[in-house]
Amino acid sequence: xxxLKSAAIALxxxxxxxxxxxxxxxxxxxxxxxxxxxxxAAGGPTDTVARLIAESMSRSLxxxxxxxxxxxxxxTRGAGQVAKAAPDGYTILLHHIGQATSATLYRKLPYNVLxxxxxxxxxxxxxxxxxxxxxxxxKDAAALIAYVKEKKDGxxxxxxxxxxxxxxxxMLFMSAIGTPMTTVPYQGTGPAMNDxxxxxxxxxxxxxxxxxGQIKAGKVKAYGVTTPxxxxxxxxxxxxxxxxxxxxxxxxxxxxxxxxxxxKVTIDKLNAALLTALQDPKVIARFADLGTxxxxxxxATPEVHEKFLAAEVAKWKPVIEQAGVFAD
Length: 328
Hints:
The strands form two sheets. Strands 1, 2, 3, 4, 7, 8, 9 and 10 form an eight-stranded mixed beta sheet that branches. The protein has a two-stranded parallel ribbon with strand order 5-6. It is α/β, with parallel strands linked by helices. Helix 2 (45-61) packs across helix 9 (264-278) and helix 4 packs across helix 11 (302-323). The model has no long low-confidence stretch (mean pLDDT 90). The chain has helices at 2-27, 45-61, 76-83, 98-105, 141-151, 165-177, 189-198, 208-216, 264-278, 281-289, 302-323, and strands at 34-38, 65-69, 91-96, 117-133, 156-159, 182-185, 203-207, 220-225, 251-259, 293-294. The chain is globular, with a radius of gyration of 22 Å. Helices cover 45% and strands 19% of the residues. The protein has two domains: 7-126 and 253-323, D-Maltodextrin-Binding Protein, domain 2; 127-225, D-Maltodextrin-Binding Protein, domain 2 (3-Layer(aba) Sandwich), CATH 3.40.190.10. This is Tripartite tricarboxylate transporter substrate binding protein BugD. Belongs to the UPF0065 (bug) family.
């Protein structure tokens, strides 16, 4: 008993001695490079957002924020890596709406979306566009809907993989028109877009950060945007409300995360750098080129992000369950 008591006292003393050291380390953050994990392949829309934010945050933090692409499993591989990383702020995650949908979509998710991360702040809401190969017959959204209903699984819809934004958009579109298409999942947005431009697939719905350039270059045919109002960057493309499909609206938000247990002082420093990035004229201008803009600063706080994520998990749960689309 005496030995157990002595051991307990020793452990308590050790904890007390380590606490000031940990606090000091957090105060010194960052003293080396920070790794920003993007859970998708390089060159995709989320990667584009991450690199713009990382460049600005590097200047604010005084250390390089290095983007590392850890793709696979619909974004869950990269997210899982961050969930298991040391909670010191040196490994962070830039993820999109898939952070919320994965909670229902994956039966064996190796982490808890709501309890294994510290939210740093929301970054941007990216509209989406439904695009087709340049030779696709329908001329507008109403004609496209009629065409899909007629051809059904004769229409080939490509996406960036299970759990990707393009997968979610396609799932909602098929649900909204009550008609299935043949779905081809790719290993990332880049390969899917290449096949769409090349005419191997018929349709794709993806973020404006990835589609705006292709639309303006005339390499694909745009059928509609998934926002209530037309976009400043693509003013000639109608909304789906105009195109006979009211209520078909989806925006792909992006958020920044750190592992659970990351000290508040570290989260605050990361958030301050994020807020600076969202006001950076270069970031704002580049986002505008891509058809999006930073979120309002009041939405970019850890507290708002935490509540928003929980609401998004609850919002998408019945949609995914009704569709019956799950992944292991």
